[in-house]
Structure formats: C-alpha cells, structure tokens
Amino acid sequence: MKMIFHHTVRNILLHSALLRNQYVIRVLGAALLVAAFLGTLDNTDLVHSHEARAAQNAQRILDTGEWGLPRLFDDRLELQKPPAYYWFVACVSYWLNSGQVTAWTTRLPAALMGIVCVVGVYAFLRWTGHRDAALVAAIVLATASHFTALSRIARVDIPLTAVVAFSILSFYLGCKSHCHGKWNHPLIWHSLAGVNAGIAALLKGPVGIALIACPAGAWWLAEDRRINWLSWACLLVTAVLVGLPWFIWANCATYGEFFRVFILHHTIARFSGTSPQLATHPWWFYLPRFTLDFLPWSPLFFLGIYCTAKNNLWKADQVMRFSLICFLSMLCLLSISHFKRADYLLPAYPFAAIFIGCFIQNLLKKKSTDIQRRVMNLFHGTWIMTIICWIVMIAIVEHRWYACTESSSFAARVRQQAPSPQPVILFRMEDHLLSFHLGRPLETLVEWNDLKQRLTRSGTHYVVMPKEYLYTAMQIISEYKWSIISISNKINKKIYIFLLVEK
User: Fold this and answer.
1) What is the C-alpha to C-alpha distance for residues 143 and 179, in angstroms, rounded to an integer?
2) Who's near 280: CB < 8 A, 6+ residues apart?
3) 424/438 Cα distance (integer angstroms)
4) Structure pTM?
5) What is the pLDDT of residues 306-347, one digit of tens each?
6) Nearest to 294 by CA among 161, 145, 118, 158
7) How far is CA 264 from CA 157, 204, 272, 273, in A?
8) Residue 153 and residue 377: Cα distance in Å, rounded?
9) By three-state DSSP, how is residue 65 classified?
10) Measured between alpha carbons, how far is residue 17 from residues 20, 24, 27, 140 in Å?
11) Res 224 pLDDT > 60
C-alpha cells in the first residue's frame, strides 16, 4: 500500500496535465483534507490543559444533565470561557459514543469546524465569482501549519475562527446583495451574520463580538457606508437573542461572580494588561508569529501585499480589498491588547487565505500560459507535499511525541486503590489532565486548615499532593498516619504522591 501511495503522489507531481485538472485537484484535496483533519484524532491521549477541561465539563454535563454552568470534576465552576464548546463536545459524545467523553469526541468538534471553515471560504469565493481563487484560498487555509495543527486540538480557537469568518462574510454578502431573490436577500445574510455573532459570544465572550465588529466596521466605513435599517436590525436582534440570554442568566446564577471572573479578569484585564498574573507582550508580537504559523504560505502573503501595492491590483478586486481590510483590522485590534497568544490571531487566517486566492487569480490573468502552468504546478506541489507531511506526522511522529501516558497510568493506580465513588482529595495541585483520568468524585483543597478539617470526617481518606508538601503535611497534621501508596513519574514537571491517611 505504501508503494502504491508514493507512486501515485510522484505521478501527480510529475504530470502537469493532471495538476491542471480541477476535478482531480478537488477530489485529491478533499481526501487529503479529511485525512489531515480527522485522521487518528484518538491516536494520542488528551495532552493540553484546555482539552482536559473541555472533557471534564462535557462529561459532567452528560453525567448530571446540568447544561447551564460548566463545572469540573471537583464541582468548581468553570468561568474562564462560556460553555458553547463544552456543549458541542457533550452532544458529539452523546450521539457518537454513548455519552462517554474520550480524546476523539473532545477533539472532533474542532476538527469538523476546521473543515467547515475551509469549505465556507471556498463557497464564499465561488458565490462572489472568484472560481480560481476559491480553490486556491481553500487549499491555503487548510494547509496553513497553525490552522491545521489547532484543528486537531480540543480548543475553542478553530470553532471561533469559523463563526467569526462566517459572520463577517455573511455581513459582506448582505451589504452587497442588491438582488432580493429567495436565497439572496440582505435579511437572510445579515440574520445569518447575527446568529454566528451570537455563537461567537458563547464561545469567547465580548472578544468574539469585537473580532467581528472591528473588521466588518472597518470595511463598511472604507467601502460601503450604506445602511439597510431592517436587515441591520435583524443582525442585532439575532445576535442578542442567541448570545445574550446565557450571559445574563450565568451572572445571576453566580451572584455576579461570572462578571468578575470572566469579564473583568479574563477579558478586560487580559486586554489592558492590568492583571499581574498575566504576561504582557510587545505590539509587534503577531508579525513574526504569523510569519511562522502561516507557513508555507506567509511568504506568498507578503509577496501579494507588495505586488498589490506596487501594481494597484487591489483597485480592480473588491473582494481582495475586503479580505485585506479584515486581516489588517484584526491584526491591529489584537496587537493593541497587552496579553497575546499566537492562537488569538487564527480568526484572521481565513481572510489571509482569501487575499492570497484573489492575488493569484488576478496575477495570473496578466501572465502567459507557460508562466501560469509553472506557478500552478509549484503551488499544487507545495500544498500536496505539505499535507503529506502532516499525515506522516500525525500517523507516526505525533504518536511517539505524546507516547507518555503517565497521567492515565498514575490515575489508574489511584483508582485501583480508591475506586469510585470513593472521593480523592487533590491538595495544592491543579492538573486537569490527571483530574480527568481520575474521574469523579474529586475534591480540590488549597489551605492546610481546609485539609485538616476534611480529614476529621470518618473513614479512610485518599490524598494526592505534590511531593514537596509531604513533609509539611506530616508536621502540621501529625495526629494522622500518612502512608505512601504510589509515587508518579514527572507529570507537568511535578511528582505526585498518592497517600492513605488514617486517624
């Protein structure tokens, strides 16, 4: 099978006639896209803290039926993000895995939304008459290194990227829709933009709305400046109806704690840099990050900006101008924020891909057939080799890279001695991956007095704590007998001790 596969790839790269066949490119691209995004999603255990938190919240939803406020296995409220992604994971786990959350069901929503985002970019450009640009942009987005990688991780960033892109693209089509046909009416497009804006709020809060309002508003001020009051009202109403009710309910249910934790700390403090717990980054942080994370296409993107400015290509293509305005608006908005992460720039990637697609389509119109053939052969060869490298990585390298399963093995040893429903006390530690493997019930304690008070309850107590706290625990709570049952290897650079505590 491997020989057949390599022989097929070699023939594709060698025969330019085959590369120019749009049907072959679509079929091959679709097959490799599904393989790169969905292949071996369960090949590794949950790795990141975000994945473990999503898995805990979704499993607790399915176990208890409480869909309102997300909670971890130790019953602590999860107020870092709204619950939309946890709802997606819970639904996928219920429908496809009998209500059991696994690494596969936790990552599947992100992978599916990555594919949907690629298809959405393709459909938008086809709708606007950019047939050649549509295929190029879809391929660019699907093979941008950071986009592909994040689509295989259970994080909110890729679903947010998809709904932000859909909202902005729908807003653009609504403003440009002069035909009031059955499926091409401003009310429909702007209502769709509002629905996606509401979902963006449920995924990321006010940041999701800002990522939509800033580029859409910048393009409208620069290019359109017309207001269809009825369709704009539909946009606002649908966005409010979809996104706002949960926020009001959550804040009331937590007696204002949600506003203090999520809005003030995780949103405003991150943006303004007023929290001492969060690092700050220079304004130019995203320029080198985008250059690295958008490989292999970032050189083509910067070349496109240079050629577009030099040859005034942007004047002839309003979709190219629209995509560039949206990308630069998001870049400026995120650069103003003091706290930065490479993942935050992902919603700008679809517009970078659209810009590249339009740039190549407009550039090749002025070139000879021979140059067009060479450029497209180079382009197709690049993305085919890129996606093959991704498939090799996820099939071989990724599995070996994350082969260590110390969290799951240590959790299995703990639950062998303290099977559910016996509670396990986690003292002065926050390891979401270990907590997920331990399962419910868990109790998390931080203060020594709280631990001492908890141990006064009758029965046998099982405690997991970092190794460095053992001696202090035996000194402070000396009236109890501390017996070491198991010691872990390093988990997130720490060694944990599983203890039996008796009076």
Assistant:
1) 35
2) 273, 338, 339
3) 8
4) 0.88
5) 888 887 777 778 899 999 999 999 999 999 988 888 889 999
6) 145
7) 21, 14, 10, 11
8) 32
9) coil
10) 5, 10, 15, 21
11) yes
